[in-house]
Design goal:
mainly alpha, 0% strand
């Protein structure tokens, strides 16, 4: 349980560092009247969507795995308590 909490806390504390590490966005150029393919857009004007999506998915998976793990631990504790009660009562 402590390990799970430590991992979640470390991830939550690391997320602002990822956001700060990215350079600040510059003012967007004036709107264009036509479509510009991504291959023609300079790299400094592209949105780092892959990084943001990967961090979001990673965070969701860590939280989901942590939740499932805690539920399984609590279920095992309840099963142990029930078996102890069954042995004492029977």
């Amino acid at each position: 349980m402590r390990l799970c909490r430590a991992l979640v806390c470390a991830l939550v504390l690391a997320l602002p560092a990822v956001a700060i590490a990215q350079p600040p966005a510059q003012q967007p150029p004036p709107a264009q009247g036509e479509f510009v393919p991504l291959s023609q857009v300079p790299p400094n004007e592209q949105i780092p969507a892959f990084t943001l999506v990967a961090v979001a998915y990673g965070f969701v998976w860590v939280v989901l795995i942590g939740y499932v793990w805690t539920v399984s631990q609590r279920l095992q504790k309840v099963e142990r308590e029930l078996s102890n009660l069954d042995r004492r009562g029977a």
